[in-house]
Amino acid sequence: MKTINLLGATGSIGLQTLDIIRNHPASFRLSSFSAGRQEKAAEAIIREFKPKLVSVVEKETAERLQLSYPDVKVLYGKDGLEAVAVDGAADTLVNAVIGSVGLEPTLKAIEAGKNIAIANKETLVTAGHIVTEAAQKAGVELLPVDSEHSAIFQSLQGEKAKNISRLILTASGGSFRDRKREELQDVTVEETLNHPNWSMGAKITVDSATMMNKGLEVIEAHWLFNLPYEQIDVLLHRESIIHSMVEFHDRSVMAQLGSPDMRVPIQYALTWPDRLPLQGTKQLDLAEIGQLHFQKMDFGRYRMLHLAYEAGKTGGTMPAVMNAANEEAVAAFLDRKLSFLQIEEAVERAMENHTSIAAPDLGAILEADLQARATVRSLLR
Ligand SMILES: NC(=O)C1=CN([C@@H]2O[C@H](COP(=O)(O)OP(=O)(O)OC[C@H]3O[C@@H](n4cnc5c(N)ncnc54)[C@H](OP(=O)(O)O)[C@@H]3O)[C@@H](O)[C@H]2O)C=CC1
Ligand SMILES: CC(=O)[C@@H](O)[C@H](O)COP(=O)(O)O
Ligand SMILES: [Mn+2]
């Protein structure tokens, strides 16, 4: 029996994690969870899973829930998130919150000796060196949930890190993969949110369309697998059937395949090194699919990917700045305050405005994150 604390329970990854817990009552139990602003969804989770601790964003929501559910401790805000992350009964934290808000609770959970199933890629992008070092020191596992990183992790089982030649992250190309750059000027939020292969939260779906998602994933892979950027490639693959690959020095390539279903990597992070059956997922039928397509990545078309490699190679506080600027710009796009291509302009501007600090501590990272957000907000004005 694995006991789980879950950050971001009301989101896309959070709800799929709950589905896995629901379907394996003998293997998993939910101890505590956090939600954001979806009060009704949080209530439904309280009623079904009967956790002992819950956190939400707003104080008023917490007070209302506390009155309705006196047997549950209900907290709110940053302190609440951290309390859920470290809640004593659990051995594993699933971090499925969105954005760099996930960083500090993750560090607290590591200090408390929890294994981390990490969906929240922004945490690793923002402070990969701090998170990986803390995990190593505490002797806890950082288990990838992101589909590409899970694919690499699965492909590496039984292999030696010294034999890796390169990682090949696959990218679907996102909502506008069949459009030229000139055709992106007036694209709408609704069009952007129409991902061809995956049903995900709004922010990551926009990131897939700008290719920032793959940029974040390149940096995430750098930290999870401890490889230089020169050994991390991206390949366009329309179908999202090959979830990523590892090439070894003998030119042998290991890949993990499957129908696009995030419950597979979420469950693997929770069962590793074992596996459990997964109810309701589509069996891969390659005969039905017929063909898989691959295409070289065009860094001119997808400028965000270029910026992410630059940020990763610069290191220090630059990835945190890129990530925070992107979070602000995507929120502004979803709020109809920036156009699609202005997301990229805002990120580039924030990076230009910033001089990276090498080997930053947590304080320097949080400060750089705030500054980048302020830069993007000033562009909006
Ligand atoms: N969705 C997917 O298939 C994949 C997602 N990921 C990564 O997983 C993470 C989660 O993505 P996804 O599930 O799509 O995101 P969603 O937007 O669907 O869910 C985000 C969750 O975080 C909560 N939340 C949002 N803002 C805050 C805040 N300020 N404080 C506390 N909680 C907050 C939301 O609460 P509420 O909704 O109640 O407001 C919700 O529970 C991201 O880092 C993403 O990149 C990685 C691979 C695939
Ligand atoms: C499901 C998942 O892991 C997402 O991060 C996915 O990778 C998005 O697809 P693309 O970024 O390849 O469009
Ligand atoms: Mn991914």
What is the number of helical segments per DSSP (H or I, 4+ residues)? Answer: 16
Radius of gyration: 20 Å
- Per CATH, the class of the largest domain reads Alpha Beta
Number of domains: 2
Query: Which stretches are low in confidence, meaning pLDDT under 50 for 5 or more residues running?
Result: none
Broad structural category = alpha/beta
Describe this structure in words.
- With 381 residues, the protein is α/β, with parallel strands linked by helices.
- The protein has two domains: 2-144, NAD(P)-binding Rossmann-like Domain (Rossmann fold); 160-258 and 284-314, no CATH class.
- Helices cover 47% and strands 15% of the residues.
- The chain is built from 16 helices and twelve strands.
- It has a seven-stranded parallel beta sheet with strand order 4-3-2-1-5-6-7, sandwiched between helices. A five-stranded mixed beta sheet has the order 11-10-8-9-12, with helices on one face.
- Strand 2 (28-34), helix 2 and strand 3 form a beta-alpha-beta unit.
- The longest helix is centred in the last third of the chain and has 19 residues, at 362-380.
- The model has no long low-confidence stretch (mean pLDDT 98).
- Bound molecules: NADPH dihydro-nicotinamide-adenine-dinucleotide phosphate (NDP), 1-deoxy-D-xylulose-5-phosphate and manganese (II) ion.
- The site of 1-deoxy-D-xylulose-5-phosphate has 12 residues, from helix 7, helix 9 and helix 10.
- It comes from Domibacillus enclensis.
- It catalyses: 2-C-methyl-D-erythritol 4-phosphate + NADP(+) = 1-deoxy-D-xylulose 5-phosphate + NADPH + H(+).
- This is 1-deoxy-D-xylulose 5-phosphate reductoisomerase.
- One of its GO terms (molecular function) is isomerase activity.
- It is an enzyme of class 1 (oxidoreductase).
